[in-house]
Design goal:
6-stranded antiparallel β-sheet; about 160 residues; alpha+beta
Amino acid sequence: MRKLEQPVFPRWEQLSTKLGFDQAFEHFGPYQGANVKIKTIDAYTVESSMALVETNTNYVGTHFGGSLYSMCDPFFMFLLMENLGKDYIVWDKAAAIEFIKPGTGTVTARFHIPPQEFEYLKAELARVRKLDRIYMCEVKNEAGEVVARMQKTLYIRLMKKS
């Protein structure tokens, strides 16, 4: 049976070490083109935002749906990996996005996992070793109206201690 590992991509590790987590995304191709900006609020919260520019505009002049999803894609996984540590494997398992209304101007999404969730996960994974968890976020426009809702299912597993 092969060992399931989760290596960090060397370029990402280099960028995040040299520039910091938030600024590393400025060199991440999909986020450069979509004009996505990242702001770490605290160890449990990250915010992404995206102003409407030519490179993330769809055929009718609003935010391209793929860019709306992209601005939400990795952050629950990152929060879990950072807060659980190297003894845990975290993988995306499924995702869904519901578009509520056209996105114009700058849109923002906040990703938060409370500290109690990490306590629960560590205790539960010590018992069952692997599980799926669902996390949700909303993308909002400048008026605070919901533009899209994203749901992520993440697979989380405690690696065997050697």
